[in-house]
Amino acid sequence: MSMTLPRWGTRGWVVLLMTAAGCARTSEEEGAPESVERELSAIVATCAVARGPVGTMRTANAYWEPFEAGATFRSGDWVRTGPDASTRIELRGGGRIELEERTVVMVERPVLPEGGGSVVALESGTARGLLPEDALPDGPLVLRGDNGRQVALTVGAHAGPTEFRVTRTARGMHLSVSRGRLLLSEGAHRRTLEAGNWLDVARGLEDSEHDGPPFPTSLSPGVDARIAWSPELRIPLSWKPLDGARRYQVQVARDLGFTRRIVDTQVEGPGFTFLPPEPGTFVWRVSAVDEAGGPGESGFARRIFVERQRPRGLLVTPRDGYEAPSDLAAEDLVFAWQSIGGEPRYRLVVARDRDLQHPVLVREGSPQQVVLPGLAPGEYYWGVYVAEDPPVPLFQKARRLVVPGTPGPPARDPSLPVER
């Protein structure tokens, strides 16, 4: 599904800074604008989400202190996550990183006059990142490796938003791409990293290894699937087969760090059936086995939430009461929802009434999102069903959607057949 990154103007950052610091500008505060600008320039990132035990060590301190969502970080601050913890950090220069459990990073800003975007040094653990397709206004995101080596990351042309992962291992720092295309640069050296590939960038591009072999791309269940528990529950895990791979290493654990594994086995084909022992949260990943019998780089981990009751309330976007921007004329509205596992067909219904009894559009298929261009101005309601007989709703109540403008005749006949 598409993801929108925050684009805060200078005014937004000033308001954030003044609010966080508890200060207010008055006519008696001479030099306040200059002071605010200095403080503003020192901010590298803000915390958007914090789960579990997370902490930061400020540049001027020698101790760790907890933080919450809304905290700001300045150049040279350290951030770490504890067991079963995670945090998402929005970088001022653009893009975001999410730290998985037991991860430590330092965030910086380049020293002038070089300028550039945010600098992230991964000390341990794993961080996942997302960069927008558009060029970052302050320059590329920079990964700091060993001995101060710095590798700049930009998104390849027409690649769309790009998702990547950086992992510290005993052998180096692995950079892998799950979606899009990354362009890497260090001085005169250039590399391109396609989705499904990885390389070691700890020592810079000049000494980095050749691109690692591709890793399998997970297919099903979908991201953050929610599945109802039963003693007979069997969850098929599937991934795209890799050319030349004869076996795959499948791991299922109770944590993102895979320290509490309940499955660690090798299979021949691109699939495995997982039998959860009880309700709870599980994480799975798969890697191809090399000729020496060892697993290579694993694909991106996916969570599965096994719940005691059949999950509902799985709609993701648009939120309830969403009003489409008037300048977009309701173009490219993205409807998205979470997976229930397996390979079901979903039915998106958009209607004029709250009970979805008079649809203006029905779209059925297996993806977890649908992009609809050009709904006519007016008020709508929408929901998603599992296309069974009878249909099973994935929502407690239909969500309201407003398309601004002057209402006119319906854009589609209410008896429009199902679009597949």
Characterization of this structure:
With 420 residues, the chain is mainly beta. The protein has three domains: 10-200, Jelly Rolls (Sandwich), CATH 2.60.120.1440; 220-307, Immunoglobulins (Immunoglobulin-like); 315-403, Immunoglobulin-like, CATH 2.60.40.10. It has helices at residues 10-21, 32-42, and strands at residues 43-51, 54-57, 65-66, 72-74, 77-81, 86-91, 96-99, 104-108, 119-124, 126-131, 141-144, 150-155, 162-169, 172-179, 181-186, 189-194, 198-200, 218-220, 225-228, 235-239, 248-253, 261-267, 271-274, 280-289, 295-298, 302-307, 315-317, 322-323, 333-337, 346-351, 359-365, 369-372, 378-386, 392-393, 399-403. The strands form six sheets. The protein has a nine-stranded mixed sheet, with no helix packed on it. An eight-stranded antiparallel sheet has the order 4-1-6-7-10-13-14-17. Mean pLDDT is 79; it is low at 1-25 and 408-420.
Question: Brief overview, please?
Answer:
The protein is mainly beta. The protein is built from 2 helices and 35 strands.
Give the SSE layout.
Blueprint: H1 10-21, H2 32-42, E1 43-51, E2 54-57, E3 65-66, E4 72-74, E5 77-81, E6 86-91, E7 96-99, E8 104-108, E9 119-124, E10 126-131, E11 141-144, E12 150-155, E13 162-169, E14 172-179, E15 181-186, E16 189-194, E17 198-200, E18 218-220, E19 225-228, E20 235-239, E21 248-253, E22 261-267, E23 271-274, E24 280-289, E25 295-298, E26 302-307, E27 315-317, E28 322-323, E29 333-337, E30 346-351, E31 359-365, E32 369-372, E33 378-386, E34 392-393, E35 399-403
Parallel strand pairs: 9-11, 19-26, 28-35
Antiparallel strand pairs: 1-4, 1-6, 2-3, 2-5, 5-8, 6-7, 7-10, 8-9, 10-13, 11-12, 12-15, 13-14, 14-17, 15-16, 18-20, 20-23, 21-22, 21-24, 24-25, 24-26, 27-29, 29-32, 30-31, 30-33, 33-34, 33-35
Helix pairs in contact: 1-2
